[in-house]
Fold:
Amino acid sequence: MKKQTRRRFFSTAGAGLAGMAALPGLGKTLESAAPMAIPGDVEIGIASYGLRNLSVDEVIDLMHDLQLTKISIESMHLPYDLSPADIERTIMKIRGAGLDPYAAGVIYMKSTEEVARAFAYAKLARFGMIVGVPDYNILDLAEQKVKAYDIKLAIHNHGPDGMPYPDAYDAYQRIKDRDKRMGICMDVAHTARSGIDPVEEIYAVKDRLYDVHLRDNTANNKDGKPCRPGQGNLDLPAIIRTLRDVGYKGVYTIEYGIEEDAPLTGTVLTVGYIQGILAAL
Structure:
């Protein structure tokens, strides 16, 4: 990270923590939370797609600044076409820096060849889970690979944009009777863009909810755009309360996909916002 940018980190983080006190119903709780602490069974992570224009070294630096270890790796930080030796070298750099690359993705799979490549790649890098989008017609093959490799597949929903799995329940209906290592990565903003209440959908898919992408959105319809937390229409406190209520055990993953050339401020604010909700709960 550039020195000037990183110098601003702690002042930005402070602004993020201060902003949490403005959350409806949380301010009074946070005033008495000194020091602020989140539940011990909760781990906040980052989806590296939101940091897609940063190098691997810059991503590692930011994760250290945020004091987070869980990271879901997108292909720009670990390309599929790297040699096995280079995949091993890069993933060892990430792990050697104290990070836990708990998942790969989002990985799109439109053909049998892409399914085979995704699972071979995940095995080589020793990912425990793929956040993926296998086309409907190759779910049988995806299930075979889940069993053969013992790697979880969490299907990511993408809203009303003509892609497979517009909402998490669509994915759930297609995998609920399949191998239990097949589940859901629920993107709460895309769920809302489909006109569905994320709280209701969490309850509907709770037994197969293996990952969640947390972010805010300007409108709960197809025209909704990503925005900073608290500036949009999503009730993130209610969403996180519901995750706690259903006993969600996965990572609370932040996917801050906007301001891609300067994602630091928005990422820090989002981490602070989510930490504040968790501390209040």
